[in-house]
């Protein structure tokens, strides 16, 4: 389970509030995970635990899934603040 210490923090990285940055964030996170899996070769149990956590987070549509933005979920209240997001 040593390899999970490098995978689980990836699930805690928040998505950017600006919708224009979602694609760049998704690509970066995808490349990070791909390079991690190819370089470190985590054990099967760690990989399955991480994939299960990723599927549960994305399936529940809590808004922290870095693969896509759920259409039914709303942005946080701070996303409507022009000083944070911009115009």
From TrEMBL:
Keywords: Membrane, Transmembrane, Transmembrane helix. It holds the Pfam family BC10. GO terms for cellular component: membrane. It is found in: Membrane. The chain crosses the membrane at residues 20-38, 45-69. InterPro entries: BCALP (IPR009598). This is BLCAP protein. It comes from the Eukaryota. Belongs to the BLCAP family. PANTHER family: BLADDER CANCER 10 KD PROTEIN HOMOLOG, BLADDER CANCER-ASSOCIATED PROTEIN. Acts as a tumor suppressor; induces growth arrest at G(1)/S checkpoint and apoptosis via RB1-dependent and p53/TP53- and NF-kappa-B-independent mechanisms. Modulates expression of genes involved in the regulation of proliferation, cell cycle and apoptosis.
């Amino acid at each position: 389970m040593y390899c999970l210490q490098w995978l689980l923090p990836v699930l805690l990285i928040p998505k950017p509030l600006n919708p224009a940055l979602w694609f760049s964030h998704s690509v970066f996170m995808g490349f990070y995970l791909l390079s991690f899996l190819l370089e470190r070769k985590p054990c099967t149990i760690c990989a399955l635990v991480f994939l299960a956590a990723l599927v549960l987070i994305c399936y529940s549509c809590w808004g922290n899934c870095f693969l896509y933005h759920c259409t039914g979920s709303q942005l946080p209240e701070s996303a409507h603040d022009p000083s944070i997001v911009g115009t």
